[in-house]
Amino acid sequence: MNKQHKLGLLAAVLVIALLTGCSSNKSGTEGVSELIFATAKDINDMNPHLYTGSMAAQGMVYESLVEHTKDGIKPLLAESWDISGDGTVYTFHLRKNITFHDGAPFNAEAVKQNIEAVQRNAAKHTWIKLSTKLSSIDVINEHTVRLTLDEPYYPALLELSMTRPYVFLSPNDFVNGETKDGVSGYNGTGPYRLAEHVTDQYARFVANDQYWGGAPQVKGITAKVLPSGETTLLALQKGEVNFVFTDDRGADSIDVEAMERLTQTGEYQIIRSEPMNTKMIVANSSRSDSPVSEKAVREAIWHTVDRETISRTIFSGTETAADTLFSSNVHYADVELQKRAFDPDRAARLLEQAGWLKEDGGDIRAKNGLPLTMKLYYDVNSSSQKTQAELLQSETLKIGIKLELIGEDSTSIAKRRSTGDYDLLFNQTWGLAYDPQSTIAAFASESSYRHTTSGIPQAEELYRKIDEVMISTNENTRQALYADILTIVHNQAVFIPLTNGSVTVVAPASLKGVTFKQTQFELPFEGMYFE
Question: Of the candidates 378, 369, 340, which has an alpha carbon nearest to the alpha carbon of residue 493?
Fold first, then answer.
């Protein structure tokens, strides 16, 4: 995952509008012969060991050893596995009689070749901690492979379940035994294979009728590249596409109100997943020359965020108000934490008690000659962030805080986050498939949230507990450590939650079989059908 994806991985809004009227749709529970979805971006390079490709597309073509589900880790290409008592050796027993799309056998040697190809490109994968802990991959027999870590790492199975990079490509597609410099084909083991791709026009996927899990009911899926906004909406209305599928990087381009008007006819339905991730404002506790280093200031800002208004007016209800960094459906995150509601009066009292006062009839508070002013950075390409920033600027000004709003591109904001050159900035958690472990590991990372957390009194305790939770092999210990970690950062108000993003489906009332994965970037198309 590159830095841009890290910034975006966060509580994404996926808006999917499925409309009837395409001649390719069949009625009845036998399924849908073809689905066509509009996308603002091309699928790009489908090499699953790199990061430029569409995750929705890669998720149809490639598979991992295990799958992350709502009920925990489940078998996928591995039918079972054993973990050594010390948590350092994982032995996977692979399903038999599976082939890649090109007919090559999927076996332990293919697993070894793929994982070692990923590991030889280690610089690209440092975001995924498992890549730094794998010491060897050994073939035991044709259908058994052993992964050895240099220390215990409980999220190993979670990171092996992700859409990339630990998924499997036919070794025939490797170039000179490698994948890091490109591949010659895109043959996975998944339910669909890429049949045709015209760059910036469309990509067509056809069902893998030899799929080990059974031939998909939906026989074809086409990703059609269309300009965002009115053009896409018109294509929907004409029946040229069945649905729009856009992740958080393109969410601002969707006219949510227009989509909701379709449902008001009674012919359509809205289906939403559980929260996928949380959008937030990150406060730099380590910036000693800024008011943001004070807990009381951070708490005051928290109390001036009108989350319900943001949810209702900016996101039209597609994102819900968030009271904590992680929603309770995130594993280990159902922790009792003090709620800080929208309460400007309480915010003003906190500032008064901390010595931030208005003097000589001025509107802006000050303390020891330091004015209560801070800079808030937002993504210049996100209209929703800009609107939220303006709302927060208005509310904080009422209690004597002056926020200077600065729009920059996401790359610049990522650099500020890693160097500590910020007071406040917009960001979001990595998302359900990656949390809580990935976001929490970033609390201590020099390239991520270290400046956010290093100024709090409990910083060293926080980092010690993060190290402990990642290597703990005891479930009860992990639960207790996560509760402590989440309590520390919540009490110190360094991550100010805004909204929870969900996958949203707007579909004909007749569409059934709509389900969600534990990620905001994919949708299980193959189970859909019309009654």
Answer: 340
